[in-house]
């Protein structure tokens, strides 16, 4: 009853806000062409000194947060940005799992912040509704955007002549499976190279007491399940020839949930591992990142990681409680038919600017984002403030303790950054570590496993998929834990198609063809 | 001035803030129900969105998920009604019989502290205790060479888990209202019964229980009005893809489709349906209660 009332109330408020908002929107669109030409004419004269920063403006910004949460209170980086650009920056951090939900509620009440981070689904859903500022006219005046972000990445999900936001750079083959090297050594095993070896190693980790405490309290590997899809399982899916959500089959795109021929050996593999203990018995209750927490807690021996995060955060944490811990990369294991692939991410998230705020503010936000990509600004959001978070000593850089407490890098890792594969590596980092990360990156880059339909957006899909995927996942999970026979994969796939998956597939194929004409 | 009005205006003045609260936060929001008949698009606004008539309801009643969700909701509500509801009453009677005041106070305080623990923490404790690999109970079982139990993922344990959590968290809090009504029983009745030679059981049967009857009936009717609300947080936190078949209820479905995917119209229709069912049940049972000579809620 109360939940319902809240929903109704917020809707009502939305109505009121929308009613008030309309007139300003119209005013905005009328003035838009004028602003474009003004910007262009100014750009012709001198690019740097165009923005008048004499007035102190408050800018609200919404950024996603991950493990550890966002900044609490005033961060030195924010102070520095405020001083530099004469702004009062107010950042709201929203856990990534609730981002879409939060922004949907903001949409319902028409209360978006001045600049914010949006995921693909929301970006495409709202792109043509006039809520995001077209930033293309500003690119000439602010050269850092095209200098440090590729033109292709700016074009993603955008029509040809309007860019309704900046891309959040992501390295496509970033994630990698990591294995406990010290456990392998203790049991006299090698890092697995095939799916079969992967299963053997995982089972050995569960049954042969790799941590030597005399208890059976470890398991081989784990992964998560969020909103009806797997997380941290890509190399295994790829090895069995399954698609990264969609796969080209003849002329058509097919969803991996219906690739029954490939799904059966995949599910059987996980089922055997579950029975042997090689697969974490609690994987069903894992949320997004629980497999990583278990790796850090030393209860799981293999997990998929962002290597930069692993080297700089998780491994040091693991070594605090288990000083003997060492890690090694698992090259994507080779499947039964010789297939290999690594988690491959599309660059589909955007940083957008509110279209209904006044022009002066919009320009100051663009200036802020541009500054964040400049040499000086990027150094600030990546490494922090000199003599607070780091200092230079005889030509080398040294990290200060405040860096770990303040975490000044959050804006660059979670909100906006250059196209920089070594985003998590700071200027004081050991060369050996940089080399190691580069090595992991290079190894992974060979095994890209892209989703052909990553850029395709289908309204049919966003309407039907949540429940369908949840049901499919439930059916497959039942098979993995041994509550249902492997052949039920056929039933799960045909149910998915019958209940609306066929409509999704049809729409995705249509949109895909439109996009690639 | 009307003499009645003159005499009682301070009372009306005192009612006013409460009345205002209900108007602003309970009645005005009901306007939002219009969404159930519209294809709501936040950017077109409340009035700009097109009317769709009963389309949302048609979609709701024709999809097969609906019956599963309805069944799950009723089953979990039923469990609450028949197994959880009597427990605070029993607890209140037991506490009432305790003659040492400090023992009664201590027990009472101890059992209602969990009410102030948030569901997130309760879910955390549940996982720590019941997880298959790392859970305390299963670690104990494994150490004694027993089979591990999949308490969190096996759908057949879900309802028991749901009930246990509820009892642990809300039992103590639920006793408060019954204890209060027991405290108002005239001690003279017990004394008279004692003089007439009634033992503890007779006193319980003829004095304690009858004096609780009215409040029990009222609480029961109020609970019926909320039969479609089974507690979003608790279920959402217990839910996983293996127990979805028994744990998916209206609240979690609305969350997934409405809050996460912005289908405001469809999920408002769902909310309206829930409220109508609750209202019908409340009215029916209130009338029944009156027929049997009870006071009812209004």
TrEMBL record, chain A:
This is Extracellular solute-binding protein. InterPro entries: Bact_solute-bd_prot1 (IPR050490), SBP (IPR006059). It comes from Cohnella fermenti. Residues 1-20 form the signal peptide. Transmembrane segments: none annotated. Keywords: Cell membrane, Lipoprotein, Membrane, Palmitate, Signal.
TrEMBL record, chain B:
The keyword Transport applies. Residues 70-285 form the ABC transmembrane type-1 domain. Keywords: Membrane, Transmembrane, Transmembrane helix, Transport. GO terms for biological process: transmembrane transport. The chain crosses the membrane at residues 12-37, 74-98, 110-131, 204-222, 264-285. It is a multi-pass membrane protein. The keyword Transmembrane applies. GO terms for cellular component: plasma membrane. It is found in: Cell membrane; Membrane. Belongs to the binding-protein-dependent transport system permease family. PANTHER family: POLYGALACTURONAN_RHAMNOGALACTURONAN TRANSPORT SYSTEM PERMEASE PROTEIN YTEP, PROTEIN LPLB. This is Sugar ABC transporter permease. The lineage of its organism: Bacteria, Bacillati, Bacillota, Bacilli, Bacillales.
């Amino acid at each position: 009853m109360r939940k319902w009332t809240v929903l109704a109330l917020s809707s009502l408020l939305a109505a009121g806000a929308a009613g008030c908002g309309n007139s300003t929107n119209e005013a905005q669109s009328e003035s838009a062409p004028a602003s474009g030409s003004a910007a262009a004419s100014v750009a012709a004269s001198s690019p740097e000194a165009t923005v008048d920063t004499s007035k102190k403006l408050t800018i609200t910004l919404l950024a996603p947060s991950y493990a550890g949460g966002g900044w609490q209170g005033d961060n030195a980086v924010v102070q520095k940005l405020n001083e530099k650009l004469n702004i009062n920056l107010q950042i709201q951090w929203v856990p990534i799992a609730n981002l879409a939900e939060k922004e949907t509620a903001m949409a319902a009440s028409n209360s978006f912040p001045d600049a914010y981070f949006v995921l693909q689904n929301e970006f495409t859903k709202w792109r043509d509704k006039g809520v995001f500022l077209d930033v293309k006219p500003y690119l000439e005046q602010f050269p850092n955007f095209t200098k440090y972000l590729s033109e292709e990445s700016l074009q993603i999900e955008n029509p040809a002549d309007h860019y309704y936001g900046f891309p959040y750079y992501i390295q496509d083959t970033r994630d990698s499976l990591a294995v406990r090297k010290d456990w392998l050594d203790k049991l006299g095993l090698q890092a697995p190279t095939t799916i079969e070896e992967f299963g053997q190693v995982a089972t050995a980790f569960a049954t042969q007491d790799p941590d030597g405490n005399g208890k059976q309290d470890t398991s081989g590997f784990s992964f998560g399940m969020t909103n009806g899809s797997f997380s941290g399982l890509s190399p295994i899916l790829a090895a069995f020839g399954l698609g990264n959500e969609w796969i080209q089959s003849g002329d058509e795109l097919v969803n991996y949930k219906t690739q029954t021929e490939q799904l059966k050996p995949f599910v059987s593999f996980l089922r055997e591992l579950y029975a042997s203990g090689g697969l974490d018995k609690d994987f069903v209750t894992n949320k997004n990142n629980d497999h990583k927490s278990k790796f850090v807690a030393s209860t799981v021996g293999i997990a998929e990681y962002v290597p930069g995060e692993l080297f700089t955060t998780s491994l040091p944490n693991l070594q605090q409680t288990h000083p003997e811990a060492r890690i090694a990369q698992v090259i994507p294991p080779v499947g039964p038919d010789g297939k290999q692939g690594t988690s491959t991410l599309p660059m589909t998230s955007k940083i957008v600017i509110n279209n209904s705020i006044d022009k002066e503010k919009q320009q100051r936000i663009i200036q802020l984002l541009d500054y964040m990509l400049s040499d000086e600004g990027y150094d600030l959001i990546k490494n922090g403030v000199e003599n607070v978070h780091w200092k230079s000593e005889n030509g080398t850089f040294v990290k200060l303790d405040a860096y770990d407490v303040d975490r000044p890098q959050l804006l660059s890792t979670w909100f906006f950054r250059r196209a920089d594969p070594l985003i998590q590596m700071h200027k004081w980092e050991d060369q050996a570590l940089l080399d190691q990360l580069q090595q992991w990156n290079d190894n992974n880059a060979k095994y890209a496993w892209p989703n052909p339909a990553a850029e395709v957006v289908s309204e049919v899909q966003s309407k039907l998929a949540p429940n369908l995927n949840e049901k499919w996942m439930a059916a497959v999970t039942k098979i993995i834990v041994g509550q249902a026979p492997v052949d039920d994969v056929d039933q799960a796939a045909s149910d998915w198609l019958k209940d609306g998956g066929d409509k999704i597939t049809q729409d995705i194929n249509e949109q895909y063809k439109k996009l690639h004409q | 001035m009307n003499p009645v009005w003159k005499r009682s205006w301070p009372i009306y003045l005192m009612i006013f803030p409460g009345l205002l609260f209900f108007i602003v936060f309970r009645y005005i929001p009901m306007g939002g129900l219009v969404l159930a008949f519209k294809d709501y698009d936040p950017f077109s606004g409340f009035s700009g969105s097109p009317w769709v008539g009963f389309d949302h309801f048609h979609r709701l009643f024709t999809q097969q998920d609906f019956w599963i969700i309805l069944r799950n909701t009723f089953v979990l509500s039923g469990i609450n009604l028949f197994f959880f509801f009597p427990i605070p009453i029993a607890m209140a009677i037991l506490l009432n019989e305790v003659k040492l005041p400090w023992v009664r106070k201590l027990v009472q305080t101890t059992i209602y502290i969990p009410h102030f623990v948030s569901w997130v923490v309760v879910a955390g404790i549940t996982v720590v205790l019941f997880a298959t690999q790392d859970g305390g109970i299963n670690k104990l079982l494994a150490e004694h060479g027993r089979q591990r139990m999949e308490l969190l993922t096996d759908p057949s344990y879900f309802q028991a888990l749901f009930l246990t959590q509820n009892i642990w968290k809300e039992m103590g809090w639920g006793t408060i209202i019954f204890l209060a009504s027991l405290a108002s029983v005239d001690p003279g009745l017990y004394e008279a019964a004692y003089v007439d030679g009634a033992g503890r059981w007779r006193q319980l049967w003829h004095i304690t229980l009858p004096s609780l009857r009215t409040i029990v009936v009222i609480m029961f009717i109020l609970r019926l009005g909320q039969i479609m609300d089974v507690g979003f947080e608790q279920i959402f936190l217990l839910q996983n893809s293996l127990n979805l078949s028994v744990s998916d209820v209206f609240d979690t479905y609305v969350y997934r489709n409405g809050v996460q995917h912005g289908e405001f119209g469809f999920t408002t229709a769902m909310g309206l349906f829930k409220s109508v069912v609750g209202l019908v049940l409340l009215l029916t049972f209130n009338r029944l209660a009156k027929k049997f000579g009870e006071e009812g809620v209004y």
